[in-house]
Amino acid sequence: MELVKSLGTALGLGLLVGLQREWVRNRMAGIRTFGLLTLFGALAGLMGLAFGPWVVAASMVALAGVVAVGILVERRSPEPDAGLTTEMAMLVMFGVGLLCLLGERLVAVIVAGTVMVLLQSKKPLHEMVRRIGEDDLREIARLVLAGLVILPVLPNRGMGYLGVLNPFGIWLIVVLIIAISLAAYLAGKFLGGGRGAVVSGILGGMISSTATTASLARRSRAEGAGGLVLAAMALIASSVVFVRVVAEVVLTAPGHLWALLPPLLAMTGWFGLVAFGVYWRSRSVGAGTTGEQAPSELKSAVLFGLLYAVVLVIVAAAREHFGNSGLYVAAALSGLTDVDAITLSTSRLVTTAHLDTGTAWRMILVGGLANVVFKMGMVVALGARAFIRPALTGFGTALAGGAGILLFWP
Fold first, then answer.
1. Which residues of 223-256 are buried (b: 16+ CB within 10 A; e: fewer)?
2. What is the mean pLDDT of residues 291-302?
3. Are both 86 and 220 inside the same structural domain?
4. 335 and 368 in contact (C-beta within 8 Å)?
5. What residue numbers bound the domain in which 15 lies?
């Protein structure tokens, strides 16, 4: 598995650089060629470990020869798609043959299958790159900077007040926020996000349910007849928040799932039922759209990371000086505008044994309910009457169910 991970990492890094070369329409090497090139480099390194360093040197000579031939072909050929893909595939498949000789048959099958997929995916890969704009590529570059350049060099240990500040962990949250927002944006761009209440609501919830609710409330003033549909979209986006909360707990506190997840899953299911009920009523109305969302900015993600760190300190200080009552106040305040910070920080404190699970899930739920209250305020302040009534009914019903779970869950 370590070998498969190494080859997969090499392929991914090659595809990443190849994406940029493909976007600028480099004739010699694009997204598939760079993927094959780094895969060949990894295979050459593996063969060097087995047969000696001369294999690596010979591989570099072979690669230089392929590049030289490619340059000659590019200069003489009138064909616009001349490149090195076939030549690189031949080199990789030579390495696959040697893998079989070494007894690594499973790895050889995986690599050969990857080569076939890359060769067969010429048209969809090229079309995908053509649909990526300069702003999209810039956001991808920012994600690479944050995740592959900055993150690995940060210290991964507890620091600061009560040892709750971990630079690596805090910056990892920044990377996750950038990645999730960018993935949601690209999904909407390629899959037609904004067409249909369900798709728009899900994508809005992935990016920012609070911003989505505010946007829909403002739109309802111009589209009063679609108020029920817009309310359904806002509720779907907010229900996705609790799905995200569950996912974040699973990722950050995997050793405490039996204690943390049941009440949070109950809230997720209840909110989902409420959103589905409003959507079911709105099916006869034409679906509105939220519009295409811009990719996440690095600046906003960094600000979120700072908020996450502040929440960590606030929660730790509240527990240290005020007990559980102070914790719930901190959870409510931090959850007003964003549930992720209190979820991630609380789960982290559970993992590091600074907080018990019973208090943790209640804090997360209090933060989520505070966020619902904040959205209800935005609905009243920004929305039209046709939007306010179904939205408040849905949010209020979800809030009542959450309060019941908070009060009566054993």
1. beebbbbbbbbbbbbbbbbbbbbbebbeebbeeb
2. 56
3. no
4. yes
5. 2-131
